[in-house]
Recover the amino acids of this structure.
């Protein structure tokens, strides 16, 4: 599933994960916004990950509206490329490799 951000109805600030109170105006009314794509702003390789973890890269993403996210990936996407972040069942965000689809119930 696609990650959901919260859009403050008072000042249009975006937050991920969604908050109970807006960090900018203190408002408490929000709408949900799906994060459908984001630009790759940075990639780091994980040298010491948890045992069994298949995601070897941390990817900094900039989504529309200036929202910044941190995702995991099995590969290193090119800087500046557009990717589709996906939420895992455990709340982590990953970028699926088009050539090696992610399992749906990953516990990575
Ligand atoms: Zn606000």
């Amino acid at each position: 599933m696609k990650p959901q951000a919260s859009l403050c109805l008072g000042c249009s600030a975006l937050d991920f994960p969604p908050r109970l109170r807006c960090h900018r105006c203190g408002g408490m009314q929000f709408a949900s916004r799906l994060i459908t794509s984001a630009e790759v702003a940075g990639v780091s390789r994980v040298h010491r990950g948890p045992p069994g973890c298949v995601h070897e890269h941390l990817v900094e993403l900039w989504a529309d509206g200036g929202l910044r996210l941190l995702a995991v990936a099995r590969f290193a996407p090119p800087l500046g490329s557009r990717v589709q972040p996906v939420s895992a069942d455990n709340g982590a965000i990953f970028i699926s490799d088009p050539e090696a689809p992610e399992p749906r119930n990953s516990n990575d």
